[in-house]
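Thread: quick sanity check before group meeting

JM: Hey all, I'm pulling together slides for Thursday and realized we never actually wrote out the predicted structure for the chain we discussed last week. Dropping the sequence here so it's in one place. If anyone has concerns about the input, flag it before I start.
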Amino acid sequence: MTHTQLLDAKGNVPVPPTAHELRWQSRVESGEAKARYDALVQRRAMSLDDKIALSMERIVEFGEAFDWHVASSYSGGLDSTVMIDIIERVRPGLPRVFCNTGLEYPEINRQVARTDNVVVMRPRMPFHRVVQDKGWPIASKRTARGLNVLRNPTGNNQNIYRLYDIGINRFGKKVAGFKVAQQWRFLLDAPFRISDECCGIMKKEPMHRYERETGRVQFVGILAEESKGREKAYAEHGCNAFDLKSPRSWPLAFWTRQDILEYILRYGLRYADVYGDIVETPDGLDTSGVKRTGCVFCLFGMQMETGMNRIQRLAQTHPKLWDYCMTKLGMGDVLQYMRDNARPGLAAKFNAVPDMADTQLRLPGVEVAA
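JM (edit): ok, ran it. Output follows.
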């Protein structure tokens, strides 16, 4: 089929596939991608001892490829706390790089402060400027980007506009997962900006800057189970992505959250107090405090939470931070708009005040607000 045959009603002509798209197509057609997906499923079922051994192999493989001119991206969270412990067993003394965005729980900052050999990087733009000039991180990265595109049509973005509007890509093919869902389209008229640029500005740019300044490529403590995008990345690269512009290693990619918690208990690792205790539940190990840390003020994925959402928990555990979010940053107005305009089931996910009848979190050393 020629490009002319693919013209849409607006005369939109698709551009040729990128090198990345061609590489992924080749891996799909050769069966390599499916083999890596299958390997991911099998490795998740391995014992913790076998997972530790395989992670160590991947760490050595990546480190030796770059003559150990490498570093660890360290967030202060559970996954990266386990990762740096394993890396230290393999190659002691490597630097750990922490990006202080100003959006972390204070307990995360304390965890980082008591960790050795940490280099601190900072973003060049503060969060209040990001949400003011770029937009709020709402729903998910893909949905936020789609809403931004649909709210800002130009004469040059017809291809990407069509992708997020009706799910048709520049080759005239239907692509799952890109069309902005109807439940989020009320945000097209929101009186505030929405975008997916926050992570790039606040986290990725400082880490890339560190890499440019030092030449050190990085280990990153992420799990593939956390998103389909990360599972796809594993299918593309495995644990070690040597062919990226900025090579990366994800040595724990095939681990599960249960593995992380089991490792912490087994080796008695000290972790950030905001997670509370690691406890047994009917579904396995869990934390009595927050489940994930990340950026305190981020709204990505909030609609997926059950029980108290992250902002309600923040009101209980860190009332001063909650007040700063609601009043100084203007998040209170954003969440109020969501509650007023989303369909009822979705609107309820954006409550900002906790139901005091809910079970309160048990965080060591943290006084719960009344």
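AS: nice. Residues 48-65 form the longest helix (18 residues). Confidence is low (pLDDT under 50) at residues 1-7, 356-370.
JM: adding both to the slides.
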